[in-house]
Specification:
With about 50 residues, this protein is mainly α. The protein is built from two helices and no strands. The protein has one domain (about 5-49). The relative contact order is 0.28.
Amino acid sequence: HGRSHGLLRAFPEFDETPWVPQNADADVLYCRSYCPRHPGVHEVVFALI
């Protein structure tokens, strides 16, 4: 559940919860998400749309 896929594997600096271990259980972290406030995230995400 806590593993990174796709976007966060390519851009780990976008991880909203980098302090949570990659092998965290679902009760600790349901899923990883990118931080919408990271200064470089919109350029990358909008290029994918």
